[in-house]
Amino acid sequence: MNNRISEYSGISTSKVWREGRYFGTVDDWLEKKKKEDGAEGLWRIHDNLYDLTTWMKKHPGGSHWLEYTKGTDITEAFEINHIRGNAEKVLKKFYVRRAKGNRSYSTTFNEMGFFKTLKRKLVDRKLLDDGCTSPQQKTKILADTLAVSVFLTSLMGTFFNFWWFLLSGSLLGLLGVCSHNFFHMKDNWRMFYFHLSLMSLREWRISHVLSHHIFPNSYLDLEVSMVEPFLNFLPRTDKRIRYIAWTITPFLMMCLAHVQFIRRLYLVLIKRSTKLEWKEELVGFSFPLFIYIFNGAVSPWEIFLTWNVVVATASFVFTFIGFTAAHHHPEIYHDGDYLGNNRDFGVLQLAAVRDRSDVDGNYVLTTLMFGNHAMHHLFPTIDHSKLYDLNPVLEETCREFNINFKPMTVKNMLLGMFQQLVRNYTNFKLHIMNS
Question: Which residue spans traverse the membrane (predicted)?
Answer without folding.
Answer: 243-262, 282-298, 304-326
